[in-house]
Model the fold of this input.
Amino acid sequence: MAQSNPPFMSGVPELLLLRLLQQQEMYGYDLVRAIRRVTGEAISLGEGVIYPILHSLERNGSLKSKRKPVGGRTRVYYSLTRKGRDRLDQLQNDWRRIQGGITTALETPSNA
Amino acid sequence: MAQSNPPFMSGVPELLLLRLLQQQEMYGYDLVRAIRRVTGEAISLGEGVIYPILHSLERNGSLKSKRKPVGGRTRVYYSLTRKGRDRLDQLQNDWRRIQGGITTALETPSNA
DNA sequence: GCTATATACCTTGAACTACGAGGTATATTA
DNA sequence: TAATATACCTCGTAGTTCAAGGTATATAGC
Done:
């Protein structure tokens, strides 16, 4: 049936999201700016990336949400569940492995 | 018109390829195994990834190739051109930036 | 001699992610 | 009153990676 594993480097947007939400509850629009900020402008993910991930993480029980009316508008604040914390750990390990592998490859001296 | 930039983390397979070819000329089948090896098994890219990249890099002048018959079979050895070295530098910088951004995000203490 | 595995090249269709443009609505600033 | 910022969202598509195939020769095991 040709089912495919996720691409080896995916999961980074999800990782960043979960990491930020581990530190404090946040809402989508804010996460967009926070990701730019905490990565030193290196990574910029639009709302078209953020919102779908938030929704799917909530659907699978990694996040819980809470609506807060703030000055006429409504914000949807997300925070981690137990499952979300586990998922964060897993993604963090995955990332370290990938990152380490690439670093090794790049650091190997030309005359090896 | 909706023309899209490449995903922010793409270019890693290309980076690994160019990095290996900077060290020595290699052929496709060998690169597949080399990438697994130099990344400590963290990254495994199949031939379906490697060959198309080699072809497109050759087409755009980043690689040059040379066919060598070896014991009945033919190997296509690739090596970097000037343009390929420039491309490697650029991808290496891109990667360092991304990698640094993510590291910063992950290292920020929970009570920040 | 036969079969399976390894080498070596390649392409293709589907799966998946990320991008960008859009749409709604309220609040604030000019 | 008009433009910008906040805040939510979806959708089409572009670009990448994946897995599975196909061809062909060489080698190793039985």
User: Anything to note?
Assistant: The helical segments of chain B are 12-23, 28-38, 47-59, 82-107.
